[in-house]
Amino acid sequence: MEQIGLERLTGLIAFARAASLGSYTAAARSLAVSPSAVSKSVQRLEQQLGLSLFTRTTRSLTLTAEGRDLHERALRLLHEAEEIEQAVLAAKAEPAGTIRVVAPLPIGTQVLAPRLARLKARFPKLTVDLRLGDEFVDLIKEGIDVAIRVGELADSRLISRRLAPHRLCAFASPAYLAERGTPRHPDELMRHDCVNFRFQSSGQLLRWPFLIGGRVVEITPPSWAVANASDAIAEMLVAQGGIGISPTYVAARYVQRGELVPVLAECAVDRSTITALWPQSRRSNPNVRAFLSFLEEVFPPEPPWDAVISAAARI
């Protein structure tokens, strides 16, 4: 059975190449065999299948109706076989060269940058080109290998993997709360100094989400300052600028230092998800595989920044 299978596979390869190139001679040249070897392989395949695949003349080969159908199927089969071979080779290949990564600015600065040295230590031949910003980037057109985005964007050309929840919580400095009091309900934010976030892409202000009575309610409190960078908002809050909302991965280091504390933490919600995206064409790329493995370590099932916020909220 194995010998018959191998013989048929050899015949399919010879047949597909001859059909694509239009002659046994051209097929033989591309396969580095003799024209007679190609002809015999195709004839054996026809005998095994009980079909006539070509209409032959002295000058050309023309596919029969059965031949056209088999040619399409053979091309798909051989393409899949090539992908399997490339995947096996890629799995054994050492990551090297440049990997181009795009990510939102706060994720890049607060989560990726402090940990990238680990990737360098593990794969010394790999160079990271990290591009940070909130603008939309077409991965295919820009030649990007991996993108990290907030939310799940549908694109059939891309593969996605959920990394972690994108959790938002309100924060303030201990000194501000000591002077102005700590709000016990989101409605009380209207009586506080607030700092809000403006999206770079749309220019819209962030509507603050809170879990109230089992449902998510969004409010936009009056704000004395607005910024389009989460780090800038955190610095304003540290300087007793009031109450602001921030991703937990941005605020965690300020909370660890005692400069900020969570406010209304029991109402915090997962706004969306942090997602990794990469092109279908790069799914077997050793550089992409290495970086995705790195991301699994950077974004564990229980992110450390969320643990910091939860611990501070219990104090």
From TrEMBL:
InterPro entries, alphabetized: LysR-type_TF_proteobact-type (IPR058163), LysR_HTH_N (IPR000847), LysR_subst-bd (IPR005119), WH-like_DNA-bd_sf (IPR036388), WH_DNA-bd_sf (IPR036390)
Keywords from the named record: DNA-binding, Transcription, Transcription regulation
A Pfam short name: LysR_substrate
Residue span, HTH lysR-type domain: 7-64
CDD domains named among the record's database cross-references: PBP2_CrgA_like (cd08422)
One GO molecular-function entry: DNA binding
Top-level taxon in the UniProt lineage: Bacteria
Entry similarity comment: Belongs to the LysR transcriptional regulatory family.
Descriptive protein name: LysR family transcriptional regulator
